[in-house]
Amino acid sequence: MSQAPVIRVEDLYLSFGGIQALSGVSTRLLEGEVFAVIGPNGAGKTCLLNCISRFYTPQEGEIFFGDREITRFPTHAITRLGIARTFQNIELFKGMTVLDNIKLGRHAFLKSGIFSDILYFGKARREELALRKEIEETIIDLLEIESIRKKIVGTLPYGLQKRVELARALAMKPKVLLLDEPMAGMNLEETEDMARFILNVNRMWRVSVVLVEHDMGVVMDISDRVCVLEFGRKIAEGAPSEIQEDPQVIRAYLGEDPMARTRL
Asked: Which CATH fold would you assign to the domain 5-262?
């Protein structure tokens, strides 16, 4: 694995009124790794993702994508750079089909003009057909959702909706994937499937992954490195084995009980 950082966060500060969400957080995502961010509720995990994806603008600090400083880029520019994300709460169009939801992840990148889009001929039609073929042969196959591709999203179980949201993010052809609690609300089988899909995306597609997740068993099993936040501050960072034995992490998050190290 290359050790070049694909994302660098330098001394980030973010506050809302009198609440300090992030206090001097610095970290990095290395190219090709699965990097987990953990911590108690309110630790600042989602705030960190929101700063990277430009939903929030930090008061201080810098964010780099490769050598480019992106701290104040608009959100759509972040997407075009190759940073995609999923959300804690599913953000899908519930009245549309699975396939149409996934295709929306790529439409911002299509190059046909407005008139050909309206009339649906020429370049627009060719791009649409190529996009559909690519989605059906790669993303739908990878995430094992062929049987539901024509179903209305709102009729699907929660676990499958989470899988569709991941598919839509993959349709953006990301270099970096930001996953905000992708296993939340899932049963054991669904959790195991999602962990497998994340590893496949990381290894087969060579997508670098930032994973915010409460399931410590998943985090320790699939992550290359782990960053621990507490009250908006970074208290530890390292390999999963190091994090499990770190006294500050055990005190602040995992608990003194060894059995607590695999649950929240």
From this structure: Rossmann fold (3.40.50)
Q: Around Cβ 65, how many Cβ atoms within 10 Å?
A: 20
Instruction: Read off the pLDDT of residues 74-128 as tens digits, 9 standing for 90 and up.
Output: 988 998 899 999 988 888 889 999 988 988 877 555 454 444 444 445 566 676 6
Q: Where are the domains of the chain?
A: 5-262
The pair of structure tokens assigned to 73 is 């880029």
The owner of tokens 């050909």 is: 116
The residue type at 225: R
Residue written as tokens 């985090």? 219
Residues ≥6 apart with Cβ < 8 Å to 191: 183, 215, 218
Contact 39, 226 (CB under 8 A): no
pTM: 0.86
Lowest-pLDDT range of 121-135, 172-186, 242-256? 121-135
